[in-house]
Amino acid sequence: TLGGARHVVAPMVDQSELAWRLLSGRHGAQLCYTPMLHAQVFVRDANYRKDNLYCEVCPEDRPLIVQFCANDPEVFVQAALLAQDYCDAVDLNLGCPQMIAKRGHYGAFLQEEWDLLQRMILLAHEKLSVPVTCKIRVFPEIDKTVKYAQMLEKAGCQLLTVHGRTKEQKGPLSGTASWEHIKAVRKAVTIPVFANGNIQCLQDVERCIRDTGVQGVMSAEGNLHNPALFEGRRPAVWELATQAQPQPEGPRSQAAEATGDSWALPRHGPGPREGSKENGGARSKRALEEEEAGTDVLSKNKQKKQLRNPHKTFDPSLKPKYAKCDQCGNPKGNRCVFNLCRGCCKKRAFREAADCPGHGLLFKTKLEKSLAWKGVVGGALA
Predict the structure, then answer these.
(1) What's this protein's family per the entry (predicted)?
(2) Claim to verify: residue 20 and residue 139 sit in the same structural domain
């Protein structure tokens, strides 16, 4: 049903919609996934189904796999039944490592619950007319990863995509994906296996297939940076960018050195992020906002605010001026008796047992009431 696809575009939330899938298909991609869809929302919300799948039906967008995140067998199957007429297979996301997946109890945070996964895959395999596939992350131990893959195959999974990173490898700690794990899984199962991780150019695709023996290779960020990745050439946008500005001198990326490709993107790994203290170029949020305000292009958040209020302006010269606190420089209270901000006023009023009606601080009044009450009680006892 998937036509022997070898070059695969990964499911990417807010990225791999119909337009990007068609663009990737024109440049060599042979199979695409939808973005991850929430099974429970897909079942109960007709507009969600319409916006994310039904309105994106296109003859050129095949073969196509619809990916769901779910943690309930019945809900997963209900969602898959509603989607099966619009795709060639249904995928269960067992690889998302993000915090939202931890809170929602899906993705890579189900990889220890083998009984639940067996029931989900088995029920879907029995009820659906299209194949059931899974996308997983690996365990640190190769043996446990192999047993995990064999369990999914036995439950009814008909195609397995293995991302060679653990669920802890994300963001700045992504590091390099382990092709050894993928190779071990490929040897241990009889179903087709796709590899995911370390794919930034066509040479990476060919080397991965050669080294691991997988039937296909999936690319996420590599495809996102270059939709012509599977075609083995630079995108037109890349060409224009390189013509517009000279390339910096210095050593090429590891990927370029390994493949002999001068435009290969660097692989992601642990290290200082842009703007971090280790990078030496940290800038405050206020500085970035001021920099944005000096340009003609507004940030996304400011564009949203301007849509809600077309008359809103972000000109720094038009911002209201606030009188500063005499001690810390923060805006002072307009009715503060000490001409201070609330924090400094509270400290001073407490120290001097004074009142500040402007900030609602009544230390003097409360002290007088307390002393009066003690006098009443003392007289009564005497």
Answers:
(1) Belongs to the Dus family. Dus1 subfamily.
(2) yes
Q: Indicate if 214 and 320 belong to the same structural domain.
A: no
**Partner residues linked to 147 by β-bridges:** none
Residue 38 lies in a domain: yes
Give a yes or no: residue 199 inside a domain.
yes
Catalytic residue chosen out of the listed positions 32, 69, 87, 96: 96
- Based on the number of CB atoms within 10 Å of its own CB, is 205 exposed (0-12), middle (13-18) or buried (19 or more)? buried
pLDDT at 253 over 60: no
pLDDT tens digits, one per residue of 154-177:
999 999 999 999 999 988 888 899
* φ and ψ of 64, to 5 deg: -140, 135
CA 90 to chain centre: 21
Q: What angle do CA 267, 273, 278 make, to 5 degrees?
A: 125
Same structural domain, 334 and 210: no
251-257 contacts, C-beta under 8 A, 24 or more apart: 255/200, 255/201, 255/204
- Three-class HEC string of 305-351: HHHHCCCCCCCHHHCCCCCECCCCCCECCCCCCCCCCHHHHHHHHHH
Same domain, 175 and 31: yes
User: Which residue segment(s) compose the domain that 380 sits in?
Assistant: 307-382
DSSP state of 129: S
| CATH number of the domain encompassing residue 116 | 3.20.20.70
64-69 and 355-356: which strand pairing? Answer: unpaired
Strands 7-9 and 64-69 turn out to be unpaired
At 237 the pLDDT is 53
Number of structural domains (the chain) is 2
Domain identity same for 176 and 72 = yes
- 356: in domain: yes
Average pLDDT, whole number, for the chain? Answer: 84
CA dist 156 and 184 (Å) reads: 20
Q: Which of 81-90, 277-286, 341-350 has the highest mean pLDDT?
A: 81-90
Give yes or no: residues 191 and 336 share one domain: no
| pTM across the whole model | 0.64
User: Annotated catalytic, 96?
Assistant: yes
Does 215 share its domain with 107? yes
Sequence-distant (≥ 6) Cβ neighbours of residue 186 within 8 angstroms: 193, 212, 213, 214
Give the strand pairing for 89-94 and 64-69. Answer: parallel
Rounded CA gap, 78 and 65, in Å?
A: 16
Look at residue 283 and tell me if it is in a domain.
no
